[in-house]
Amino acid sequence: MSGGGIEHQQYPALLALLDGSSTSKPDSALMNPEGKTPNQRALAVALGVTWNEVGGGGNAVLALGAAGALFDDMEKYGHQAVNAAYGNEQLAPDPHGELWLTAMAALLLNLPAYARQAAIDYFGDYLALRRMFWTPQGMFAPCARAKAVGSQPLRPSWYTDGVAVQLLETGFVVATKLKGGVAILDQALAYRKDILAAATAAGPKLAAPVTIWRVDAGTFSAAMTLETPMNDPCRWIEVVGGKITDAGRVLGDFTRPPGGVTVGVGPIPRADEPAVAPTRSSIAAEIRSLGVPKRQLKMRETAAVMVETLAPLTLGVGAAQDAVRELGISQGQKELQASIISALASMEK
Question: What does pTM read for this prediction?
């Protein structure tokens, strides 16, 4: 695994501690959970807990406090989500799926017994959710962190999660050598029965719940019920015969069939769950989250207020859309800008 983000230092450092190839304390910056993306934060927490367990020289209070805060935030926001501002990495495919699995398996393995239940519950949700999107060819799901190369179609892959699910479901995998997060999970199979029980009882929560329209074991379509802020979203997906045939980043590009079962809403999947429609307040909040030059702060607030004060059946929607279009935001937020404009259009219907 290579790249420029700090996760590319955290990941090998964690593996080295776990396999014993390093007995040195990781750099403190790698273990600091502050100011990091969700997967980087999970890796930082896992490094701190693992160093405390393996190295014996860590600050147990800080390490366990950071772990507790991570699990508390996921309880609040949803599986693999830690805040409401681009803190959602739900159902992330590889390579981010491997980062998440490695971090969370390390916590399952190294948290003290009195704190381990949170990690068991995490993997209960992990398994329950992935069962919902399972096919004989593996897992496919709307997700965050879905990368595409250039103009190639969006085709995320969950190879790591597929092997991890097989390991949890059966207790073994057909592989000559287990690597990375799956190898760590294999070391923690003493907790497999607890995870299976937690998965049976699980009512997993997603920051963006997903509706599934299943045709057969290998054919279904699925779409998020709302567009929450996330990096590299794949908000809808169509799978035929265990192969992705279409996928997209914008919900407006997907036509919802009737019916369906919505997962990630809490206690149990519910049939015929209606899509969650955007509200004036939620759209205004998204507008205020757009990063703009200082000179446009007033313009941004004006656009948000316009949305908040729109009355039904008025012609104010078009004016609000124009106001959002005129904001000089960064390239990285163009997609959020487009989703806001699309959400505003839905208010005219």
Answer: 0.75
